[in-house]
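Re-run requested by the PI after the first attempt was lost when the workstation crashed. Everything re-entered from the original request form. Ligand of interest: adenosine-3'-5'-diphosphate.
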Amino acid sequence: INHKITNAAFPERDKSKKFPGAIIIGVRKGGTRALLEFLRTHPQVAATRQEMHFFSDDKRYAKGMQWYLSRMAVSGPDQITMEKTPKYFISEEAPARIHRMNSSVRLVLILRNPVDRVLSDFAQIAENKKNQRQNFTKLVLTANTGDVNKSYRPVYISTYHIHLARWLELFPLKQIHIADGDRLISEPLQELRAVENFLGLSPYFTEDVVYFNATRGFHCMRRQVQGQDGYTPFCLGQSKGRQHPSVQRWLRDKLEQYFMRHNEILFRMIGRRFKWS
Ligand code: A3P
């Protein structure tokens, strides 16, 4: 199979669609939705809201590259096509499949304090399993030893270096922009400008586009909506910014301690540090 497919190989109706020039690969609960929605307001970005789950799901991947292309947003010649699927970051197959599509595609990874990410992940899972009471301490610690449970999925996902290592086997580090999810919450403009720069887009983000909404407790955006004049304010839904479980100091310390050495491996891998403890 020839995976090196160019846009020219596809029928007329897909002519205005391009394969992604950049992909937000994760991490789940890092702020991937906020990042994509902010970027979607940029006139040079074409992206649909939906997560594609194409490179991480065998059934979808089997549908082929043309199917994938047909799912992309319609784009103009000066626009970069994007998609986001947080699952890609932890997927075994996604790096090689994406590399086969386009070895020079730009990758965006948004990371967040790994302990907060575990809590955020837990809060989401607990909400989805409303009928089962979820006990955070029981899940995150191993019963007989009291050690942090490495195989608890949220812990595994927050062990960033394990996943990033797979990407770095195929992609040079400079092709992966690592956005700071904690800063996307507190100072989104800085983070968005860094991404804008990485993607080679014209400067667009200002205080007019991205503003703090005190009622929501988060930054929101003003964007142009088809069929409406001017700019429409838009905030993310209530599923973003959930209440995390309250954890006692000793447990938080234990988790931070656990991630400390994993974070060090990551920092060495990326030549950059985050203030995570
Ligand atoms: P919490 O729900 O833990 O607060 P993802 O979209 O990858 O699932 O990430 C969700 C996280 O995005 C939320 O985590 C929230 O804190 C964060 N976030 C960052 N900027 C945001 C914004 N402007 N509005 C809402 N949530 C935002």
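Saved to the shared folder this time. The chain has twelve helices and eight strands.
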